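Review form for a predicted model. The reviewer records the input and the model, then writes brief findings.
Reviewer: anonymous (R2)
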Amino acid sequence: MNSDLDKEFKEAFIKISELKEAVTPDIMLKFYAYYKQANYGSNLPFENVLNVRNAFKLNAWMQLKGMSSKEAKQEYIKLANAVLNKKQSK
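Model under review:
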C-alpha cells in the first residue's frame, strides 16, 4: 500500500473520519460503499441480519459490484474532496 493513490485514499479516509460536523446519511453510504469496494472488492458477505441500517449499507456496496479497487479509491477521494471543500467554504 505504497502508491500515491493508496496514500491519498488513506489521507482522505482519515480526514473524513475526523470530521466534527455530520455528513448526510446518503453521502456516508457512498463513503462506506467506496471504502468496502476499494478494500474488499465484490466479495459481498451474506449477512442474515434483518437490520435496516445494514441492509442500506450492503445495498450501497452491491451497487458498486465490478468496480475496481483503484476506481473505488479514486471515487472515495473525489467525494471526500467535495465534502471537505464544501465544509471549508461555509
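Findings: The chain has a mean pLDDT of 89.
Further findings: The chain has four helices and no strands.
Recommendation: see findings above.
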